[in-house]
Amino acid sequence: MLACNSANKLSFNRFISNGDLVIIYERHDNMKPVMVSESSVLQNRFGVFKHSDWIGKPFGSKVFSNKGGFVYLLAPTPELWTLVLSHRTQILYIADISFVIMYLEIVPGCLVMESGTGSGSLTTSLARAVAPAGHVYTFDFHEERAASAREDFERIGLSSLINVNVRDIQDEGFPDEFASLADAVFLDLPQPWLAIPSAAKMLKQDGTLCSFSPCIEQVQRSCETLQTSFTDIRTFEVLLRTYEIREERMEGFSGEGNVANGSLPCKRRQRSDGSNVLSSSSSSVSTVMARPNGEARGHTGYLTFARLKCLS
């Protein structure tokens, strides 16, 4: 996992140690975070896994249970953390997060301000983007939620890059001490237009702002407020369609026969899932199949971007 030491240098833990957080990967839709403890075990449908067998192995290792089953031990990257974290609130997913980091022009060394923290999905990726010398200041009005996020950032090794604060940004605005220091501001609030004037004061000249809203009425109200101090106002909706790639056995054809296109007569058989396949009694071959994932996500929200107007 990426971490930042006191000398502002990036470090990558390539090998698993006692006390590390690992992502247990069973399949693409079944992963969970586990804290490694030398005296602990993991039990699942594949058997019993001893944590002590994991220590010293590199991240990405395939480890086996007492029954011969296996899982993979993955590093808790921001991408994987987004998929396994506890949902204290609705979160941003990878497609939106990638878009936000690109359009806010976040690079190493940036100072980024965020409200609200929520489950910390976006915050983890912001921290990695600004490392090693940058910093993320994130605010949430809910004290227990902020405390939980702070614990999560500690677990995944990003606490040196993130400050979690309890503050109602809609009512109070951002702290004056950050005026004109932020390279970018991100808002995920029910009424973002209330925080936009304060966000404008936090930004450096030519700084960028993004507001995430699930409803178009929120976008319209925000854009009206943005016109006072911002330019280049744009709104996007990111829709992602994923495909499932798998290898399947297909029945081959052999023998002789005068059939159109050179194919032999085949029998139709029904699979247990109700789908039909054509087959002959001859040998089978494997092939790679691709099909849209049945759980593709649709609308998550609207991303509105704007750039602070330069003083003439």
From TrEMBL:
All residue ranges annotated as the tRNA (adenine(58)-N(1))-methyltransferase catalytic subunit TRM61 C-terminal domain in the record: 69-307
The keyword S-adenosyl-L-methionine appears for this protein: yes
Catalytic activity: adenosine(58) in tRNA + S-adenosyl-L-methionine = N(1)-methyladenosine(58) in tRNA + S-adenosyl-L-homocysteine + H(+)
Region Disordered, residue ranges: 261-293
Keywords linked to the UniProt accession: Methyltransferase, Nucleus, S-adenosyl-L-methionine, Transferase, tRNA processing
InterPro entries linked: SAM-dependent_MTases_sf (IPR029063), TRM61_C (IPR049470), tRNA_MeTrfase_Gcd14 (IPR014816)
MF-aspect GO terms: tRNA (adenine(58)-N1)-methyltransferase activity
UniProt main location, coarse: nucleus
Entry's localization field: Nucleus
Record field: compositional bias (Low complexity): 273-288
EC code: 2.1.1.220
Family per similarity comment: Belongs to the class I-like SAM-binding methyltransferase superfamily. TRM61 family.
Protein's name according to its UniProt entry: tRNA (adenine(58)-N(1))-methyltransferase
Species whose genome carries this gene: Acacia crassicarpa
Upper taxonomic lineage: Eukaryota, Viridiplantae, Streptophyta, Embryophyta, Tracheophyta
